[in-house]
TrEMBL record:
Residues 1-59 form the HTH lysR-type domain. Belongs to the LysR transcriptional regulatory family. It holds the Pfam family HTH_1. Keywords: DNA-binding, Transcription, Transcription regulation. This is LysR family transcriptional regulator. Gene3D superfamilies: 3.40.190.290, Winged helix-like DNA-binding domain superfamily/Winged helix DNA-binding domain. It comes from the Bacteria. InterPro entries: LysR-type_TF_proteobact-type (IPR058163), LysR_HTH_N (IPR000847), LysR_subst-bd (IPR005119), WH-like_DNA-bd_sf (IPR036388), WH_DNA-bd_sf (IPR036390).
Amino acid sequence: MDRFNAMRVFTRIVELGGFAKAADSLQLPRASVTILIKQLEAHLGVQLLQRTTRHVSLTLDGAAYYQRCVQLLADLEETEAVFSTRRQNPRGTLSIDMPSGIGSLIVIPALPTFTALYPQIELEIGLNDRPVDLIREGVDCVLRGGAALDESLVARPLAMMEQLTLASPAYLERMGTPSSLEQLAGHQMVEYISSASGKRFGLEFVLGSELRPVNLSKVVAVNSSAGYFAACEAGYGLIQAPRYHALRQLAEGTLVQVLADVAVPEMALTALYPPHRQLSQRVRVFVDWLVQLCARPGTGLQR
């Protein structure tokens, strides 16, 4: 039995929640995965996993062994990278998840520069506004806008994104264009509902050192960035969003900036990854590349 391979299979079963998913992820026959785990348990003399027809869970021994496996496998990957050309030429699959706007408007258009530098890294990219369980879903790294909610993850700051207050021309023609916060009385907003926390977001402004929330009446509330912009363009009220996401609409005239003299809080953009993957060369080079990308002029992330 190849113990390191068995450990790799075991950790993937835990992370994905099943034998079949682990086998598919590792491109192994399902029977081989079952046999490896039986051999590993026989070798250790303990039961690592409790199996039912629908669920796989860790025993107490399995939970302790999983934590050691994660660290050992991370150490092995780093050690191999130090003594091989993989340090200069990392290879393998890198699974990333990010908001659809960031992905489609900023990251993916710039990816040719990354893949030219690291041609042996294969990227699997998820574009989601929903929260992702990195461990269970086998994701190496996520990009998120706003406060990082999970303190168990390593957080790498990428940018503080400028935000704008926006409306459609048809809405402003119907409701009037506000030139001060006092003139917002009687206006409407599109409410954004976070799919990660369920929190509802109205409008926020910065007056000196004071953060002033403004909640207006609403007809529509949405939980995706695409829906948020679509509702605004359809005339349902004011929104606030990162400038990069509105560049096309501003250029085409489907949205216009309002209250330009009243500041909106900046939004943090952060790369997050599990602590046991912080030594992965694939994650490291990708996050370093993201830092450079987000600092590049013309992305619309910053002023």
